[in-house]
């Protein structure tokens, strides 16, 4: 079969691979709608190490073409939402008390696409534990909106969930790309009062306000930390990091209150290093919780996100502002995600077979 990915680090292109086979609990799908992600481009540039000969992509709406002998909930022809995080549900990392199911057989090991097997930019791709991971596309939810639950909505809202937001809290969101925008929406849904979002792109700023941001901070207007402290009237209750680099953690620690929470869902490079001056955490005793996590997966989580869409609580399809038609347009969409023109939020590829 044909797929698009990385021939080697720094060299994307078309690949020819064997069509995946379905194990007893698996489903084989063909993609109907896909969205390139900065995680794909980051990996292509070597951000996850020296990977070669790997089909990329992890955000898809798919059509089931084959199911394993033990699959009960799906049949060929079903249109399904495919989460980017697909745990093996029998793994100890899923069964631990209070654990995030993203870590089934190791850290973030439930993220199978890209890291352990070919992704979804292919004529066919596989999903493990199909009954527990896939969700039928519900009536009343567009493919575009459902596609955003697979990663952008799940990841951004996990940033808000980890931030321990209480009713009326002041929340800061660093970065208002698609994940940050969903973090803003998640903070608003969880009851934040003031939401301060950091970003400069006009269309992202407009969408951040629509999703619930009360204030916008731009580095072009001066020191970001001082602007946040001024708008918040002091420090914030929670900070979500959805953009920037390792140094953004220090800015977050400057603006979060004692007993507050810093939540990171930003994908850093393997070469990045945190360097935190101890006064930022009151010599190690500042009572600040720092959390960093990979978005949970599975059918139950995706169904809940779809419920939010069906209820009109959030409209994630508004993230998609570059549209391509056809499987052969995946390279163009991938390139625009890599180059990130100033008006880009998120590209989508619609596929007809």
Task: Outline the structure in words.
With 353 residues, the protein is α/β, with parallel strands linked by helices. Helix content is 27%, strand content 24%. Strands 3, 5, 6, 7, 8, 15 and 16 form a seven-stranded mixed β-sheet that branches. Strands 11-10-9-12-13-14 form a six-stranded parallel β-sheet, sandwiched between helices. Strand 15, helix 11 (330-339) and strand 16 (346-350) form a beta-alpha-beta unit. The longest helix is centred in the middle third of the chain and has 12 residues, at 178-189. It is globular and about 60 Å long. The chain starts with a strand and ends with a strand. The mean pLDDT is 96.
What is the topological layout?
Elements: E1 2-8, E2 11-16, E3 27-34, H1 38-44, E4 54-55, E5 60-67, E6 79-82, H2 92-95, E7 125-127, H3 130-133, E8 135-136, H4 143-149, H5 152-162, E9 170-174, H6 178-189, E10 194-198, H7 202-211, E11 215-217, H8 224-232, E12 236-241, H9 248-255, E13 256-264, E14 289-292, H10 299-310, E15 320-325, H11 330-339, E16 346-350
Parallel strand pairs: 9-10, 9-12, 10-11, 12-13, 13-14, 15-16
Antiparallel strand pairs: 1-2, 1-4, 3-5, 3-7, 3-16, 5-6, 6-8
């Amino acid at each position: 079969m044909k797929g698009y990915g990385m021939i080697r680090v720094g060299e994307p292109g078309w690949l020819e691979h064997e069509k995946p086979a379905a194990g007893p609990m698996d489903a084989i799908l063909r993609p109907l709608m896909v969205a390139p992600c900065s995680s794909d481009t980051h990996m292509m540039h070597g951000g996850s190490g020296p990977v070669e000969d790997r089909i990329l992509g992890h955000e898809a709406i798919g059509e089931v073409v084959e199911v394993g002998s033990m699959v009960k909930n799906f049949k060929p022809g079903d249109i399904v939402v495919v989460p980017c995080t697909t745990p093996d549900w029998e793994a100890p990392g899923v069964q631990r008390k209070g654990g995030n199911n993203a870590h089934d057989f190791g850290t973030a090991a439930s993220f199978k696409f890209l890291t352990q097997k070919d992704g979804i930019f292919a004529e066919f791709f596989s999903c493990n534990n199909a009954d527990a991971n896939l969700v039928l596309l519900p009536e009343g939810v567009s493919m575009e909106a459902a596609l955003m639950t697979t990663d952008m909505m799940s990841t951004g809202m996990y940033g808000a969930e980890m931030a321990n937001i209480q009713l009326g809290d002041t929340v800061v969101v660093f970065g208002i790309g698609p994940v940050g925008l969903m973090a803003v929406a998640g903070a608003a849904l969880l009851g934040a009062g003031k939401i301060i979002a950091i970003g400069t792109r006009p269309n992202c700023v407009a969408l951040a306000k629509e999703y619930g941001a009360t204030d916008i901070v731009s580095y072009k207007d001066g020191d970001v930390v001082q602007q946040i402290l001024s708008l918040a009237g002091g420090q914030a209750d929670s900070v979500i990091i959805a953009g920037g680099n390792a140094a953004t953690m220090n800015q977050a620690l400057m603006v979060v209150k004692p007993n507050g929470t810093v939540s990171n869902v930003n994908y850093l490079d393997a070469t990045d290093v945190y360097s935190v001056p101890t006064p930022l955490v009151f010599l190690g005793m500042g009572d600040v919780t720092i959390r960093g996590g990979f978005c949970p997966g599975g059918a139950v989580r995706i169904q809940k996100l779809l419920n939010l869409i069906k209820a009109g609580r959030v409209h994630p399809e508004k993230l998609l502002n570059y549209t391509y038609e056809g499987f052969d347009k995946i390279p163009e969409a991938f390139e625009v995600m890599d180059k990130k023109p100033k008006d880009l939020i998120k590209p989508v590829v619609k596929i007809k077979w």
